[in-house]
């Protein structure tokens, strides 16, 4: 009788562990909404904020003839991602340059001329 109880207990424990492993794997592949929200909040808190000096088009690529994704409005903030000195030439916001900044603004990510933003 002791052998049967020990066997049943071992089988139950093995099934429980197998089920826990599956649940953990499924969780790792598909995070919950709460996990995504935490990740977005963490990413947003690491953002360097920049402010638009005037209304300027957010572009798909760092060229003035690239598709405009939306307007970044004067005195509004965007999240700065990076910079390239090798974009297309532009004249905007009181200067001419090839420097562009990669930003996220109101859910869209694109490029704006460096002369048109200020860091705060």
TrEMBL record:
Keywords, comma-separated and alphabetical: Signal
Limits of the SH3b domain: 45-120
InterPro entries listed in its UniProt record: SH3-like_bac-type, SH3-like_dom_sf
Annotated SUPFAM superfamilies: SH3-domain
Signal peptide range: 1-28
Record keyword Disulfide bond present: no
Species per Swiss-Prot/TrEMBL record: Actinoallomurus vinaceus
Keyword Ribosomal protein: no
Identification of the protein by name: SH3b domain-containing protein
A Pfam family the protein falls into: SH3_3
């Amino acid at each position: 009788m002791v052998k049967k109880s020990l066997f049943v207990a071992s089988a139950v424990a093995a099934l429980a562990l197998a089920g826990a492993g599956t649940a953990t794997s499924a969780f790792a592949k598909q995070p919950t909404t709460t996990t995504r929200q935490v990740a977005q909040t963490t990413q947003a808190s690491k953002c360097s904020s920049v402010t638009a000096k005037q209304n300027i088009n957010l572009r798909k690529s760092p060229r003035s003839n690239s598709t405009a994704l939306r307007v970044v409005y004067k005195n509004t903030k965007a999240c700065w991602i990076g910079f390239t000195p090798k974009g297309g030439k532009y004249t905007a916001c009181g200067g001419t340059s090839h420097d562009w900044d990669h930003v996220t603004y109101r859910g869209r990510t694109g490029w704006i001329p460096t002369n048109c933003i200020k860091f705060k």
